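Weekly puzzle thread! Below is a chain. First person to post its structure in C-alpha cell form gets bragging rights.
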Amino acid sequence: MPTLGTWTSITATNFNAAADNTIDESTSVDLGAGEADEVRIKVRFQLAASITAAGYTGVRIAYSHDNTDWPESITGSDAGVTITDEAKSQLDLLGNMANSDTDDGNTMEKIFAVEPKARYFSIVTENQTSGTYQSGTIEYQTKDF
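Winning reply:
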C-alpha cells in the first residue's frame, strides 16, 4: 500500500513575489539516504492584478547527489538565478502553467509528480506571465510504494 508523506513547504522567498521574466530557485530538499519512490511538487501563486498578455510559469527540477554539485548556476539556495537556454536543458521540465491575459489576480495551482533522480532537488521557476506574483508557495510530498 503506498504511503504518502505530509505536504512540506520549500523555502522559495524570491518566488513569492517574482517579477515577470525572472528565474528563481528554491532551497534544496534532502530526501534522505533512502530517497523516495515518488515526489509530488505543488506550485501555487497568485497573479498580479494587471496581467497584460497570455503567458506561463515554467517549472523545472534540478538534482544533486551531494547538495554541492548542481547544474550551471543552480546552488540549492533560495535565490534568483540567471541561466542559459542550454543550462535549462540540463534541468527536467515538470511542466508549464499557462495563463491568459484575463487571469488578473487569479490563483494558479498545479501538482507535478516525479521519480527523483538524486537525494537532493531544487525547484526552478521561470515567470513569463507578463506580471509579478502577488504571492506564491512551493510544497512537496513524498510517496513510497
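Puzzle host: Confirmed. Bonus trivia for everyone else. The longest helix spans residues 13-16.
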